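Side project, low priority. Logging it here so it doesn't get lost.
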Amino acid sequence: MNNIELENILNGYLKPFAIKDYCPNGMQVEGKESVTKIVTGVTACQALIDAAIENKADAILVHHGYFWRGEAEPLRGMKFKRIKALIENGINLYAYHLPLDVHPDVGNNAQLAKLLGIEQKGGLEDGNPNSVAVWGELPEPLTAQAFGELLELKLSRQPLHIESGNDALISRIGWCTGGGQDFIDLAASKGMDAFISGEVSERTTFSAREQGIHYFGAGHHATERYGIKALGEWLASEHGLDVTFIDIDNPV
């Protein structure tokens, strides 16, 4: 497949132009024109690039790419080495950030809900059809301990649990994968019993305790590995491409 054709397919499916983001979505580094083998991963780190070279991939597809707002512009140090390796090996780099978070099927939020058995009901942000934070319900209410154990089982990572201060069962859950911890206040105002994100801030503790909502910090990487994996599986199934997901360990 032509590399521009691949970008058009991804853009048509993920609709990046419908959401304002902090980085460019789509092809970030151009490589060889013909793409037959793709490596997917959460972040375009050096280890993933090295794995793509070893697998003789023509393209890398990630959730976390490059050229973030506020990022230093010079190609030096780590950034230079990464991009140099891509260019020297003719590897195309495609990255989709918020469009992958919010996609209703392969998105990070949707895939986390599927993994945990949560029925997604809608967005937490009123009037925003592309709400980055969402909410849903468990089929059966769980204790906070049981829900924490479910997270650990499914994500292979023990979550940080900040207790709500009450013994109520968890049924209504808000979540935002990755760095969405500040949506906890919105979740509390909407009557959620618990909120999940990947990262935690110092202020998150007091938001949870003072507003009576459980908080589960389940890891930025751990909560976002499933969207990019599902996107790669969609490409393989719908477009016949050779796609390999490579999970580079990240404890954060």
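Brief comment: DSSP finds nine helices and eleven strands in the chain.
Revisit when time allows.
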